[in-house]
Design brief:
Number of domains: 2
CATH class of the largest domain: Alpha Beta
CATH topology of the largest domain: Alpha/beta knot
Order of helices and strands: HEHHEHEEHEHEHHHH
Largest sheet: 4 strands, parallel
Number of helices: 10
Helix content: 40-55%
């Protein structure tokens, strides 16, 4: 809803956050109700970037946090807003670009959106009533960020720089294409969950761009090995190479 987007912009400005990215706003964009609700945070709305899907919105980020009130059947680091704010500062100090995904007011994030994220942010609430308004969730995260929580230990050195979401998406697409070619992602009704599980494994690893290139090399080597084995089998059976 435009009203929720406007209230989220207001919460962002309260705590010094300015870059908003919108994925397929329900009521279209720009939106007068969002401006009315933003209470002089309309500069954030004016600069907001619009995307058709979540993958495009986070393509140039190296770490994504997904906010969710529901426990998901995914193994990912789970942080409170305070812990997430501290970790974000550490990552940013190391040169990473990070972002937080917030879901729609009614249903939140779907599983495919959560799969993109490397970590989950879960706000401790009353177990009997855990649903939080979208703008309230933005406010909570903004508040913890603004408090300047110490970043903690220095980041450990890794080869290369953290891989962007676009680099990861390209690797996932290539890997899944080869797994389809080899008949691994079957039966069809189980494929979506299998794909999410595979992506979650790599998302938890926090891969660098160099590590992603290495994984591409592994996939290429396996493709060559499979193709060569097929050629040899063809020759052995008297078939043309």
């Amino acid at each position: 809803m435009g009203e929720n987007i406007g209230a989220a912009a207001r919460a962002m400005k309260n705590f010094g956050l300015s870059e908003m990215r919108l994925v397929a706003p329900r009521d279209g964009w720009p939106n007068d109700k969002a401006v009315a609700m933003s209470s002089r945070a309309d500069d954030i709305l004016a600069a907001a970037r619009l995307f058709d899907d979540t993958a495009a919105a986070v393509a140039n980020l190296q770490h994504v946090y997904a906010t969710t009130a529901r426990r998901r059947d995914m193994v990912k680091p789970e942080l409170t807003p305070r812990e997430a704010a501290a970790e974000m500062r550490t990552r940013i100090a190391a040169g990473e670009r990070v972002g937080v995904l917030f879901g729609a007011e009614k249903a939140g994030l779907d599983n495919d959106d959560v799969t993109i994220a490397g970590s989950i942010i879960h706000v401790p609430t009353n177990p009997a009533f855990g649903s939080i308004n979208l703008a309230q969730a933005v406010l909570l995260l903004g508040y913890e960020w603004y408090q300047g929580t110490p970043a903690g230990a220095e980041p450990q050195g890794r080869p290369g720089t953290p891989a962007s979401q676009a680099e990861l998406d390209y690797f996932y697409t290539r890997l899944e294409g080869e797994l389809d070619r080899q008949g691994f992602l079957k039966p069809p009704e189980k494929r979506p969950n299998m794909v999410r599980n595979i992506r979650n494994v790599f998302a938890r690893a926090g891969l660098s761009d160099q590590e992603v290139r290495t994984l591409h090399g592994v996939v290429s080597a396996l493709i060559r090995r499979t193709d060569e084995a097929g050629d040899n089998n063809g020759e052995g059976n008297g078939n043309p190479a």
